[in-house]
Design goal:
By secondary structure, this protein is mainly alpha-helical. The protein has 23 helices and 12 strands. Strands 1-2-8 form a 3-stranded mixed beta sheet, with helices on one face. The protein has a 3-stranded antiparallel beta sheet with strand order 4-12-9. A hairpin with a 2-residue loop joins strand 6 and strand 7. The longest helix is centred in the middle third of the chain and has 32 residues. The N and C termini lie far apart (87 Å). The structure holds protoporphyrin IX containing FE. Protoporphyrin IX containing FE binds next to helix 17 and helix 23. This is Cytochrome P450.
Length: 495
């Protein structure tokens, strides 16, 4: 008797799955959006490319656009639009409500942080707590500290040069950005730049998070279960988190000390003070939320900027002529501060190109308009539809950036000579209400670090070629054939 029941259940389930797939492909509100029917019918399509083949869907999406045009349905509930002119409708200003995709935010493994917040209003509330903390005015106040840290990195490069040792540039830059963001957020830096090999606990946590990025998107409940376990168990399962939690514990102890003494260094500049402000509703200043927001800021502030600095330095080492021109521009101008450096056309062009190729995040970062029906040409996009437009694809669009694989900073100069606003197509930070809150800090770090680096050093790549910076996997950040990006170099003095 039991056997037939099992069969009935199996047939029932198969019929349900089949009917659902048919509905999704042929009767769903997105049925008219072009794309493979299999991708419309089942999540297994995306699962195959991103989980089984490990971070390859973005490259396949690029091919789907060549076949189906600028709008493609890439999963039962998500469309990808590769049309920069539609970008600001997806990544819209805060006057238009934009939610995040609950599937995708699972990848951040930080549901209580602003980056992991799904709803528009809730996100606005959380973002407002930190907006002034990351304003241009606030960032400018820390310029001299950032300069001290950059000088420290330059001293370390001198050391590598003197001892004729190979430096791992990605670790070196991540140590710089980690020291900056810890000081910026907590009033104290943790001295990653002093470490012999630039080991950074924050970077370790980023690597751990990104390797499970796609798995977490599909199996959010696994990650949320792990997050709800006691810290000791969680740390056993995710050792990278353990490192970051221990590190964060030291941050909290430091914050508590500062607050107790009332005179401690960093009391004024402390993200912890903002996030645990007694005027906030209790649920918004719970320890779990404060911890998650704190960790997200540290991770987001470390890896992305570090990566653009690394990729930019790689390409700088490949073009002596351009390097000399940049050096001449810097020498001639005498510019030192961020505001002065920003006005240098060649340096600005170089940084734009480093951002274009280095990107920062390769992840699709979908948004949905919960109450608006959008139109893409004659295709209706129903409210609640997940829409993404990947920077990886826009930045490689040959109609905007001819010969897109080529690192060619002059394209930005040539465009401005034609009065063409090419920066409109630079989307590394996304745009709109949920764009990067750390954009000012990132620019300050990039301008000041590159300026000092170009003035003082040349780098000769060591066991690192173009293939080692070329992104072949998307794990929210770009992975190369070595896995996480690793760039080795020998340091030479420029004078
Ligand atoms: C070149 C450097 C950087 C790039 C390319 C970059 C890129 C991005 C992108 C694309 C997002 C949107 C994420 C999403 O849609 O889910 C984002 C958000 C964010 N970034 Fe950055 N970022 C950079 C530097 C920084 C820095 C230095 C900080 C430090 C404060 C930072 C902190 C954040 C935070 C906290 C968010 C979440 C904002 C929100 O949800 O409202 N980022 N970043």
């Amino acid at each position: 008797m039991d056997v037939p029941r099992v069969w009935i259940a199996a047939i029932g389930l198969s019929t349900f799955l089949f009917a659902r797939a048919v509905y999704r492909a042929f009767f769903h509100p997105l049925r008219k959006v072009p794309g493979p029917k299999l991708a419309a019918a089942t999540y297994l399509y995306e699962f195959y490319y991103d989980v089984i083949l490990a971070g390859r869907y973005i490259f396949h999406i690029e091919k789907l656009h060549q076949k189906y045009g600028p709008i493609v349905r890439i999963s039962p509930h998500e469309i990808h639009i590769s049309d920069p002119h539609f970008y600001d409708q997806i990544y819209a200003h805060s006057s238009h409500r934009r939610d995040k995709d609950p599937w995708v935010v699972n990848g951040f493994a930080a549901p209580h942080s602003m980056v992991g917040t799904v709803g528009h209003d809730h996100h606005r509330f959380r973002r407002n707590i930190l907006n002034s903390f990351f304003s241009k005015k606030s960032v400018l106040e820390l310029e001299s500290f950032v300069k001290t840290k950059i000088d420290h990195l330059m001293e370390r490069f001198e050391e590598f040069h003197r001892e004729d040792k190979v430096v791992q540039l990605d670790d070196a830059f991540a140590a710089l950005t980690a020291d900056v963001i810890t000081y910026y957020s907590y009033g104290k830096d943790w001295g990653f730049l002093d470490d012999k090999t630039f080991r950074s606990d924050i970077r370790l946590a980023v690597n751990e998070l990104t390797t499970v990025w796609h798995f977490s998107r599909f199996f959010g409940w696994v990650i949320n279960t792990i997050l709800s376990l006691p810290p000791s168990v969680m740390c056993w399962i995710m050792p990278g988190k353990a490192v970051v939690f221990n590190f964060q514990k030291s941050i909290f102890e430091h914050s508590a000390d500062s607050m107790r003494s009332g005179t401690g260094k960093g009391v004024g500049r402390n993200i912890f003070n903002k996030l645990s402000d007694p005027s906030l509703p209790a649920v918004e200043r719970s320890l779990g939320r404060v911890q998650q927001e704190g960790v997200v800021v540290l991770m987001a502030g470390t890896e992305t900027t570090g990566r653009v600095l690394s990729v930019g330095t790689f390409y700088l080492s490949q073009d002596k002529e351009f390097r000399e021109k940049l050096r001449e521009e810097l020498r001639h101008s005498g510019a030192k501060s961020w505001t002065e450096l920003e006005r240098l056309p060649l340096l600005a062009a170089f940084i734009n190109e480093a951002l274009r190729i280095g990107i920062g995040l390769t992840a699709r970062l979908p948004r949905s308009a919960p109450t608006e029906t959008l139109m893409y040409k004659d295709i209706e996009i129903a409210p609640g539809t997940s829409m993404s437009s990947s920077s990886y694809i826009i930045h490689r669009d040959a109609t905007i950036f001819p010969d897109p694989e080529r690192f060619y900073p002059q394209r930005w100069i040539e465009a401005s000579e034609r009065n063409f606003n090419l920066t409109k197509y630079l989307t590394s930070f996304t745009r709109g209400s949920r764009s990067c809150i750390g954009i000012n800090l990132a620019y300050m770090e990039m301008y000041m670090t590159f300026a000092e680096l170009i003035r003082r050093f040349d780098f000769e790549m060591y066991d690192t070629t173009y293939e080692d910076v070329r992104v072949i996997k998307d794990f929210a950040i770009g992975y190369t054939r070595r896995g996480d990006m690793k760039i080795f170099a020998k340091v030479a003095k420029a004078y």
